[in-house]
Automatic annotation (TrEMBL):
Family, similarity comment: Belongs to the LemA family.
Protein's name according to its UniProt entry: LemA family protein
Signal peptide location: none
Stored Gene3D superfamilies: LemA-like domain (1.20.1440.20)
Membrane topology: Single-pass membrane protein
InterPro entries (alphabetical): LemA-like_dom_sf (IPR023353), MamQ_LemA (IPR007156)
Chief subcellular location: membrane
GO CC field: membrane
Top-rank taxon: Bacteria
Keywords tagged on the record: Membrane, Transmembrane, Transmembrane helix
PANTHER family attached to this UniProt entry: MEMBRANE PROTEIN, PROTEIN LEMA
Species assigned in the record: Desulfobulbus oralis
TM annotation in the entry: none
Amino acid sequence: MKVWGTLLVALALFGVGLYVTYDGLVSKEEAVFRAWADVESTLQRRADLIPNLVATVRGSAAHEQETLKLVVEARTQAVQPLAPRELSDPALMQRFQQSQSALGSALSRLLVVAESYPELKASRNFQDLQVQLEGTENRINVARERYNQAVGAFNGAIRSFLGARINERFLQLEPKEYFKAGETAKAVPSVSF
């Protein structure tokens, strides 16, 4: 009788462990999706600021059409969403990150061009947009960090001993890709005085 009781307790504990692990994996994947939604939301905020920024610069620096065109084209590419289920595809994530890097580069170029126009720099509208853009870039960085933390927790959970067995048997969840720095971030900047 004691053996049966011990066996029942062991089976109950195993069942509870399966249930908790299964729910934990699902919950961690949802946390990745929620964090990705936050990344996309902050990226959309940046994309929403760009038309106003371009219009403001266009009014003061009309002959900078090439730079303005690059910003608009980069924005168009960058607002193409990446579905949560595509977060496991390295090629799609890399393409998404490249479009975001291209937009960042185009915006940087636009802000450098704006430095050449004192009346534009003095414009209250331009200054406000620049402050909002800077704040948004900070939010994007925080959202990316939170996304990468959620990915780390999720990927670790599906690779743990019990998590891997449950995932393999019941869920078949794919590891998610981290948001990585673009190739331009890896280059050493050249500084000359």
